[in-house]
Design a protein that fits this description.
Beta Polymerase, domain 2; transferase; 40 helices; alpha+beta; Hydrophobic Seed Protein; four-stranded mixed beta sheet; eight-stranded antiparallel beta sheet; 16 strands; Four Helix Bundle (Hemerythrin (Met), subunit A); single chain; EC 2.7.7.59
Length: 926
């Protein structure tokens, strides 16, 4: 039990001390608490010492080993007290023996602060009262220490029999390590396990572990580039290392990394990289457990910043400390992925003889073992995997490092592990000459714009390190994360996924989700520029300057290298510089305001650019992460496209405002032909020009029927709902007496009802009534459920407007900040602009999101004596961007500088949580 001076506790001293305590105190009721109290003190002090060393710079692997060593000593000391004092047997029989064995993760001799303690109590042949008592004593002592203990008590025969039928038990025993007791029992277990279980079953075990790995990856999100990764179970995490060692121990019967080199699995440099990655991941896991005080494995947003500080990261220009930490995390996860992929793929090739294609979805039957590829003598196909024809293909022609991936995409081939290993070892061959080589760039451009599966091949190209070497600007954003809740993936993963979305649109696979983009892409003059712009649109993230402007500069540099003409290069640069424009205008501006469309068209300038920008915007948003794209965003983008197209083609933009109003009236007049003439003529005079220009015919008809029914029944307050399935929103129309705080009350009722408003249009009739239309995000899958929910929200709005519901109290019950948002700080910005609209002052309020924010903003705007004509609500993760088109009470723009400053100050206070007390509510309406 001797340990070096670096040990957290002195095991020999602890065992003697505990046995002395137990021997001196004969009262069972007092003896156990004394032993337990001392163990708690030792455990607390040992963990504190371990955390101190970790914070002082100790490596994570060393911390994990020292924590495991400490637990060894605690378990040994506990066994000694139970077996030699409390249940001492002077002359034990052959059955009164036991081996205490660490299994599973604990068996590897490495523990995180919150790890489970997995124990196997090995018996000679049957359980005895003595053995049962000792095991019970140890387990209850460990449980009372607050440890999570997994345990089993079996004899050797049972261990062998259960291992045959249970892969989990087999893996646990594979990792077993003797702790204390009868060592001969453990030696017997090891020998029989090797001879009776392991021998001859390598392929079976490998197949099971690879299947288990794939399922685990699927559960964790199938990407190692999720921005809240799981350090233990995630792709590229510690469990991937464990899988490698399980297979290595089982098949090669090795117990150390050095033995993997001797077995020819890894080179020395690859083993060094493996250990470096392992050490980093253990550092992260130990810090995470110490920080959270529990066995937390997910590096969530709320701990990332403090983790970065604990690990010693600092901010650099363009990158926060937390972003630098997470970039390093993803780089190490990539290294783990590369190494385990080489290892596991080699075993899969040798033993499982599977024949997957690129994405393992096509189920093609095995072909001949080796065949030629048309057009090349440097590569061949082995079991549907592309491989080198000889070991010197990359040295002989470095362009083959690009050609390999081009051929894989062209012929839909997976990659042979030998080829991938050679690629990772040949990256130095990709130098300036290769980057400027015309053939290499042509092959890359063909791959990038392929209609096959470019996303899959580009991802492999990136993971192998080729993409970052061939396009150094791309290499700078590999593994880069953005510390916000909007982006789900690292920058490089987002770019590659966006290429996949674009290729799907190009193949016609996304016509249901993106009908306009699907029809437009076939009409493009040059689709290649779209793919290049897609790859480069975020390539300048992480720089101090605006990434769109810096990215356009990168595009102008790379365009000629890729073989683009000056005109094509300029188109790519324009798309990169303006890749956020269409999304921003569609989601944050009033598309019914003519000035919005005119300003947007002035930037776009040509119909071809409009098409390219629309398709790029759709692919960009879709690739941000699951659930980010929805039908409502698609509808906004389509509306912006259709409104802008005529201006760029010389259409109806020259028609006067009066003529357009008259045409809209005539259109509705015809649609209401069934109404009496007098009633129809009266109704057509109830709306102001803005209404006629901004509302489509279907909604004009619905509004007319709602108002007509309300008049017939004498109601001054009414609501109507319509589920818009394709757009993913539900429309609620509210008819009520006009009031400056009407929208605020509606927003408050929606908050109280748990609904998220995404857009709002407000119109006033000539007889002093308001007809407001709000769009709330869809919640239920079926239209029936969504309709029922919308009717409840509509009823709540009516109750709020009639004064039967106290909104502040109802909102307070819902307006609890989301825990994840607390991890972020977002600068509050209040933009005030009179140039974005000819009729309205536009206020853009952005800052940290929270429940009830829209209610507070609209309430404050009303208190400031402003009328809201339309509101456009967008949320990007933790950041809310709410845009209001307003006038003063006289219907004019706000032009006074002092008043503008007051409005800015008041709205900024809303984001900071300062709200004035509730003013007088709306008068009750019947």
């Amino acid at each position: 039990m001797n340990r070096s001076e670096s040990a957290l506790i002195d095991g020999r001293k602890l065992s003697s001390e505990l046995q002395a305590l137990a021997t001196a105190e004969q009262d069972e009721g007092r003896r156990r608490p004394l032993v337990l109290a001392r163990l708690k003190e030792v455990l607390r002090e040992g963990r504190a010492r371990a955390e101190e060393r970790l914070l002082a710079g100790q490596q994570g692997s060393a911390c994990a080993r020292s924590l495991s060593d400490m637990m060894d000593e605690i378990i040994r000391a506990t066994y000694d007290v139970g077996a030699h004092v409390v249940y001492r047997v002077d002359k034990p029989s052959t059955a009164e023996r036991m081996a205490v064995v660490a299994v599973g993760g604990y068996g590897r001799g490495m523990l995180a602060p919150g790890s489970d303690i997995d124990l196997l109590f090995v018996l000679p042949y049957k359980q005895t009262p003595w053995g049962e008592s000792v095991v019970e004593f140890m387990l209850y002592m460990l449980w009372d220490l607050g440890l999570k203990v997994g345990h089993a008590t079996r004899n050797v025969d049972e261990c062998i029999r259960l291992s045959h039928g249970d892969m989990t038990i087999r893996t646990a025993i594979l990792e077993s390590r003797f702790l204390w007791g009868e060592e001969k029992l453990f030696a017997d277990l090891e020998q029989r396990f090797d001879n009776e279980v392991v021998k001859g079953t390598g392929p079976e075990f490998i197949a099971a572990k690879l299947a288990e790995r794939d399922e685990r990856h699927r559960r964790q999100g199938a990407s190692r580039y999720l921005v809240e990764p799981n350090v233990k179970e995630g792709k590229g995490g510690l469990r991937d290392l464990h899988t490698l060692f399980w297979i290595a121990k089982y098949f090669y019967r090795v117990r150390s990394g050095d033995a993997l080199v001797e077995a020819g699995v890894f080179s020395r440099s690859e083993l060094a990289l493996f250990r470096k990655a392992e050490n980093f991941l253990w550092s992260v896991r130990c810090h995470l457990h110490f920080l959270t005080g529990r066995a937390e494995e997910r590096i969530s947003f709320d701990v990332q910043r403090e983790m970065a500080v604990r690990l010693g990261y600092t901010s650099h220009p363009g990158m926060k400390d937390v972003e630098r930490f997470m970039k390093h995390y993803f780089l190490y996860a990539k290294d783990v992925g590369d190494l385990t992929l080489i290892f596991c793929s080699a075993l899969e090739e040798e033993h499982a003889k599977q024949t997957p294609l690129l994405n393992r979805l096509f189920g093609v039957s095995p072909r001949r073992r080796r065949r030629k590829i048309a057009g090349t003598t440097d590569f061949v196909v082995e079991h549907d995997r592309i491989n080198m024809a000889d070991p010197h293909v990359f040295v002989r022609d470095p362009v083959n490092l690009i050609r390999l991936f081009h051929l894989a995409d062209k012929h839909d081939l997976a990659f042979h592990p030998d080829a991938m290993k050679a690629v990772t070892r040949s990256l130095r061959l990709i130098d300036a000459d290769v980057r400027e080589d015309k053939t290499a760039n042509r092959l890359f451009l063909d791959l990038l714009s392929s209609r096959n599966q470019p996303e899959i091949v580009l991802r492999r190209m990136n993971e192998a390190g080729v993409l970052g070497r061939f396009v150094p600007d791309f290499g700078k954003i590999v593994a880069m994360m953005q510390f916000n809740m909007y982006h789900h993936y690292t920058v490089d993963e987002h770019l590659i996924r966006s290429i996949g979305v674009l290729a799907g649109i190009d193949r016609g696979e996304r016509s249901q989700d993106h009908p306009l983009a699907n029809s437009l892409i076939a009409t493009l003059q040059d689709r290649t520029v779209l793919y290049v712009a897609m790859l480069l649109h975020d390539i300048a993230k992480g720089r101090p300057e605006d990434h769109s402007i810096a990215g356009a500069r990168v595009a102008r540099k790379l365009g000629p290298r890729f073989g683009l003409t000056p005109a094509e290069t300029e188109t790519v640069a324009w798309l990169v510089e303006h890749h956020l424009l269409m999304s921003m205008v569609a989601q944050s501006r009033d598309l019914g305001d003519r000035k919005t469309i005119q300003d947007f068209a002035a930037v776009v300038q040509s119909l071809e650019r409009l098409k390219l920008l629309l398709i790029l915007t759709i692919a960009d948003i879709t690739a941000v992460g699951p659930g980010v794209w929805n039908g409502w965003k698609g509808q906004l983008l389509r509306t912006l496209y259709y409104e802008t197209e005529p201006l760029l083609t010389g259409g109806h933009s020259q028609i006067s405002r009066d003529k357009r109003v008259a045409a809209a009236k005539a259109e509705l007049d015809q649609a209401l032909a069934g109404w009496p003439d007098a009633e129809r003529e009266t109704y057509l005079e109830r709306h102001y020009p803005a209404y006629w220009l901004r509302v489509d015919l279907a909604r004009k008809i619905a509004h007319a029927e709602l108002i007509r029914e309300a008049d017939a029944t004498g109601k001054s307050l009414a609501t109507a709902v319509a589920v818009r399935s394709f757009e993913g929103v539900t429309e609620i129309t509210v008819l009520a007496p006009d009031h400056p705080r009407l929208l605020s009350m509606i927003a408050g009722a929606c908050t109280a009802g748990g609904s998220n408003i995404v857009d709002a249009q407000i119109f006033t009739t000539t007889d002093g009534r308001a007809i407001d239309t709000i769009f709330i995000a869809r919640e239920f899958e079926t239209d029936e459920e969504e309709t029922r929910r919308a009717l409840k929200v509509g009823a709540l709005i009516e109750d709020a407007l009639s004064g039967s519901v106290a909104l502040p109290e109802a909102i307070a019950r819902k307006a609890k900040p989301r825990a994840r948002i607390k991890a972020f700080t977002v600068e509050t910005r209040i933009l005030f602009d009179n140039s974005w609209s000819n009729q309205f002052t536009v206020i853009e309020a952005s800052g940290i999101d929270r429940p009830g924010l829209l209610y507070d903003l609209t309430r404050s705007i009303s208190d400031l004596n402003l009328n809201i004509a339309s509101a456009h609500i967008a949320t990007f993760g933790e950041r809310a961007v709410d845009v209001f088109y307003v006038t003063d009470l006289m219907g004019r723009k706000v032009t006074n500088a002092g008043r503008e400053a007051g409005i800015r100050r008041r709205l900024a206070e809303v984001f900071n949580g300062a709200m004035a007390t509730e003013k007088s509510p709306l008068k009750k309406v019947g």
